Amino acid sequence: MDKRTLAWVLAAVVFAVFVYLISPILTPFIAAFLLAYVGNPLVSWVESKGPSRTVSVLIGYCVLILVTALIALTLWPIIHDQFTRLLEKAPAYLERIRAWAQSIMGPLMTQTDPAAQAQDDLVKAAQKVLPKNGDAVAKTVETITESGGIVLAGIVNLFLIPVIAFYFLRDWQRLSNGFRELIPPGNRTLVTDLLDQVNRVLLAFMKGQGLVMLCLGAMYSIGLMLIGLQFSLIIGVIAGLLSFVPYLGTAVGVLIASITFLMQTGDLIDLWLVFVVFGVGQFVEGNILTPKLVGDQIDLHPVVVIFAVLAGGQLFGFIGILLALPIAAVIWVVAKRIRKEFSSSA
User: Closest Cα to residue 169, out of 301, 55, 333?
Assistant: First the structure.
């Protein structure tokens, strides 16, 4: 290994360690970069029509705000109605779950007087809590403080993301050129070609996967509504959003929909309707939506996709989950290019 290669390897290791150490503050920057990355084609298209880059970014922001507002105004009455009904029916659902659990666990419970048992439990709980009331108060204050800090950090990030994304978008070309100049001249053509290929794959994948999630959310919501399930829109949206991980959206959707169906009807016989809705959705996704909209853009095995998402979540939390598939796609594209180079030189 020559000195230049060793220097690049050491630089990559140092950079990875640095990113890991400052990962708690990277959330708004990563989210802003993703927003800028997705919005750059639109901004570049607007810029090609005549406006300056800054004006084009502002137009892009206005379009995003307008589309978001239209979606919110369209869906808000339905979502609000379903959440209101969910809050109204929650006590009855909880009581039904309690009765169901008691009917199963009842024979296993010892025959004791409920009042005496409750009194004994209360005394034991008081004996445990009272000597440590100071610790309890301290832990309560600590929890409230930590919760307040988390909420404050979330609010700050919410305002920071669009601001940072604006600067990313405005200076996108300059940042891209600066990054390309860091590449050694001898490898610049190869690396630039590889980056362009990765860029095409990522944009096509993100666009296709977004359309798949949108279609699945609509299909699940309509299907659950047709079988008479309450809160069908909420469940369908959740299942659609989670479908970026293979089978996760279907598994979570079936679980939530089945529980809701049982709480609503109390009938196990007609539960097959829920499985039909998600089975049809899974079939359409695997045989129509994903092949047509995503195709072989990433060409990763589902096991690799699941591993990448879990590894990303373990290392970097929610942001790691979002970045897992794009990073896996980049690694796969690079690996295929390296294999091609070795095959051609052999």
Answer: 55
CA distance linking residue 254 with residue 236, whole number of Å: 10
Query: What percent of the chain has pLDDT above 90?
Result: 6
Burial code of 186-201, b = ≥16 C-beta within 10 A, e = fewer? eeeeeeeebbeebeeb
Question: What residue type is 289 in one-letter code?
Answer: L
**Euclidean distance between CA atoms 59 and 63, whole angstroms:** 6
Query: Which ranges in 106-132 belong to alpha helices (H)?
Result: 114-129
pLDDT surpasses 70 at 132? no
Q: Which two tokens stand for residue 326?
A: 């794009």
Judge whether residue 92 has pLDDT over 60.
yes
Q: How far apart are CA 295 and CA 229, in angstroms?
A: 33
- Looking at residue 295, the DSSP 8-state letter turns out to be T
User: What is d(CA 297, CA 310) in angstroms, rounded to the nearest whole number?
Assistant: 21
- Asked if pLDDT for residue 111 goes beyond 70, the answer is no
pLDDT score of 278: 92
How far is Cα 301 from Cα 325, in angstroms, rounded to an integer? 12
Through-space distance between the first and last CA atoms of the chain, rounded to whole angstroms: 20
Neighbours of 3 (CB within 10 A): 7
| Cα–Cα dist 88/79, whole Å | 14
Question: Per-residue confidence at 106, pLDDT binned at 50, 70, 90?
Answer: low
Reduce the DSSP state of residue 229 to 3 states and report it. Answer: coil
User: CB 168: neighbour CB atoms within 10 A?
Assistant: 20
> What's the distance, CA 181 to chain centroid?
34
Distance CA 32, CA 205 (A): 19
Whether pLDDT at 313 is above 80: no
Q: Which residues are CB-contacts of 262 (< 8 A; sequence separation ≥ 6)? A: 268, 271
Q: How many CB atoms lie within 10 A of CB 299?
A: 12
